[in-house]
Amino acid sequence: MPFCFHKCHYCDFYSIVDTQDRQTAFVDRLRNELQAMAHLAARPLDTIFVGGGTPTLLREDLWKVLLDDLQQLFGAAQMPANGGEFTVECNPETATDSLMRTLASGGVNRISIGAQSFHARHLATLERWHDPSNVERAIERARRAGITRASVDLIFAIPGQTLEEWREDLRHALRLGTDHISCYALTYEPNTAMTARLSRGEFARADEDLEADMFAATCELLASHGLVRYEVSNFARAGEECRHNLAYWRQEDWLAAGPSASGHLRGHRWKNSPRLDDYLQPTPDGTARVVDHEPPDPRRELLDWLMTGLRLREGIPLEGLETRAARVDPLAQARIMGVLRGAQSRGFAEPSGGAWRLTEAGLAVADAVIADIFAAVD
Ligand code: SF4
Q: How far does residue 209's CA lie from ligand 1's centre (Å)?
């Protein structure tokens, strides 16, 4: 869903502030695309994730049309009864009772809500405009409608944010009774307003030590409330992990629809054109224009799988390593195991059941361990 109220200053996702009301045209095109790909989907679907942009900015009448299609094409409304997970990213300002009921009747059983901070001052620094108290209201509305699972996104290391303020944000999120919290350090992506303001000297970025203290406080506080760090930046109670994101990180198959959406199926990777104008152009078979298509490549698939799998607390299953490494070269597995054993001797990796995973200390230096593995594969 490419539409947003306005552009948050840190954001490098594809989204536009739509001044021409192209929502109807967008949904027409999206329905077309979904129809074209429906035959590729397994039934019943395990998960659907509607992200953005700001999906809850879409008009409710258009949501109804879209949910009807998702039901007809994929049986979405039955997903909760079939144990599926259907998540919609939700902006606190647009989560009305009526929209939440519409989403629930279409099968949505989880919302992911972009709180970012519960301090208005820090939201202002991010140019993120919502009333922090509306986060709680949105979660209550979702629950009243029968959407029982909620995840809260938070950002730390915001310029001017203290360690205690960050702890308050975490406690606030916990008080909402959510079973899933994602915590991201503020990053300064190229071509964002935040990065331009930083280079103009409008503020100083958070000190590295403070950022490390904030992350340590995150792990400690959330663990003491039963939320386990199951991925580098994601914390959940057992059984409340985001199954859709787990599918990405385990490099399973997923379809993608909408501008800038990326799919992965049987080793193929592709990305839809990131411009709404391009996306709206019809194509003979209804599929979207693709800007990047990578055909199956055993080396790339192995590296992607290692990169995302080692960021998961569950790690990488040895069986999967054996199969994937053998497709690259007969000695690849031995070289990777050499790096993992080296990391083990430094306390960064450990065998666990039939898998290898990074330890807590290892997750803190995951990029370095993964870079060593990449070098070994090459
Ligand atoms: S609401 Fe989300 S997608 Fe939209 S501009 Fe803000 S961060 Fe980006």
A: 28
